[in-house]
Amino acid sequence: MRPRRADPALAVLTQEGMTVEEAEALVASTRYSGFPVVVSQESQRLVGFVLRRDLLISIDNARQRQEGVVSSSQVLFTEHPPAQAADAPPPVRLRSLLDLSPFTVADHTPMDITVDIFRKLGLRQCLVTHNGRLLGIITKKDILKHMAQMANRDPDSILFN
User: Fold this and answer.
1) What CA–CA distance (Å, rounded) separates 122 from 120?
2) Which of 22, 48, 80, 90 is most buried by a 10 A CB count?
3) 23 neighbors 13 (Cβ within 8 angstroms)
4) pLDDT tens track for 21-39
């Protein structure tokens, strides 16, 4: 399992350092149902996974219920918030949304085993890692396309729900 060269970079959230505005822009620019959370864009060390719906609802709730939350507020998925300037807007703490143990497979996992895992566990997505570093995501749609190719059918002819 290797990322295709033509694929765009992974859409990820960082555990700290992103603003509300950046998180909302990422959600608005994609149609994904969830996002991996990594330590940083550089390291890509996987921290967890957050669902799109939960992220949007929590940001909306924070804007309505938490005094001072603005677009420049930091979005934090850490247990302990980092020190901030006294005049900085309050952060939006979203650690409770984080699935700290999303289902992952190693990059050397054979595809037939991955297909079995999707079938037996009813997964919608599975993160691909190498020594804790996020490499990619396999979705149910990817699995269905793979199965169609193995059955020598046109993968685009399958209806995806």
Assistant:
1) 6
2) 48
3) yes
4) 999 999 999 999 999 999 9
